[in-house]
């Protein structure tokens, strides 16, 4: 059973707005999945959210449970996305998969390469980018 995402009210509002604006976008599947996640998310005040929860601008280390391969990404708004710098759009399948989850959570997600079991190894929510 997949854990329930926990979001700050700020992130929730930003993501809700993003899903409304992106209706005609090329990543309709991700928008639909993100909308589903928002619909079932627990929303907290910004100052009471656990620092180990993946949010917009989080630096996250993720591990593919099957291959043990790890990757480090920063979750950013689509306009800030830059793969060379490890900045991945919140609308990318990987980010939709982990937003709102926390360290040690495991999520199963359909990525372009197939279904992956991902484990969140670490989350850094330092405000510097």
Q: Quick gist of this model?
A:
With 129 residues, this protein is an alpha/beta fold.
List the helices and strands and how they pair.
Blueprint: E1 6-8, H1 9-21, H2 28-40, E2 42-44, E3 59-64, E4 70-76, E5 87-89, H3 93-98, E6 106-111, E7 114-124
Parallel strand pairs: 1-2, 4-5
Antiparallel strand pairs: 3-4, 3-7, 6-7
Helix pairs in contact: 1-2
Structure description:
The protein has 129 residues and is an alpha/beta fold. It has one domain (6-124): Roll (Chitinase A, domain 3). Helix content is 25%, strand content 30%. The strands form 2 sheets. It has a 5-stranded mixed sheet with strand order 5-4-3-7-6. A two-stranded parallel ribbon has the order 1-2. The relative contact order is 0.22.
CATH architecture: Roll
| Terminal-residue CA separation | 33 Å
> How do the SSEs run, as a string of H and E?
EHHEEEEHEE
Rounded mean pLDDT score: 88
Going by helix content, strand content and strand pairing, the class is alpha/beta
Number of domains: 1
Q: Using the CA coordinates, give the radius of gyration.
A: 13 Å
